[in-house]
Specification:
About 75% of the residues lie in helices and about 0% in strands. It has about 130 residues and is mostly helical.
């Protein structure tokens, strides 16, 4: 099985698996950045956005391969921080640039939902 098959799901709009959801979110952010027009002064905002958005899923995947619960928790905590950082960059882009507010708001909402899911996973894991 290749890596792209790992992320195929029947419902790409709202996949149940957090790994899939993070993958589709990162993909949407990359496509948003690719389609956006921005000046050199704003390029670092978009670079940081792509880094943080892709980091969420990468850390969830890395956590799944963790060797211990402590290792798993470390990666999920980083994923949560990256998701929150992604919201920061998206809000900054929304408030300082002329971009599609609908698209940015959709991405902010999805980042917020992903943050809540990951936080819930972390909280529930600490109860066990």
């Amino acid at each position: 099985m290749n890596i792209s098959e790992t992320f195929e799901v029947n419902e790409p709009d709202k996949p149940y698996n957090i790994r899939h959801r993070c993958y589709y979110f990162a993909k949407e952010v990359i496509l948003f950045v690719k389609d956006s027009k921005y000046d050199k002064v704003n390029s670092s905002l978009f670079e940081q956005l792509v880094r943080s958005a892709t980091s969420v899923g990468a850390n969830v995947i890395e956590g799944k391969a963790g060797s211990s619960k402590k290792d798993w928790m470390k990666f999920y905590t980083i994923a949560l921080k990256s998701s929150n950082e992604t919201k920061y960059w998206l809000c900054l882009i929304r408030d300082t640039m002329e971009v599609s507010n609908v698209k940015v708001q959709d991405l902010i909402s999805e980042a917020d939902e992903i943050s809540k899911i990951i936080a819930s996973i972390i909280i529930n894991a600490n109860k066990v």
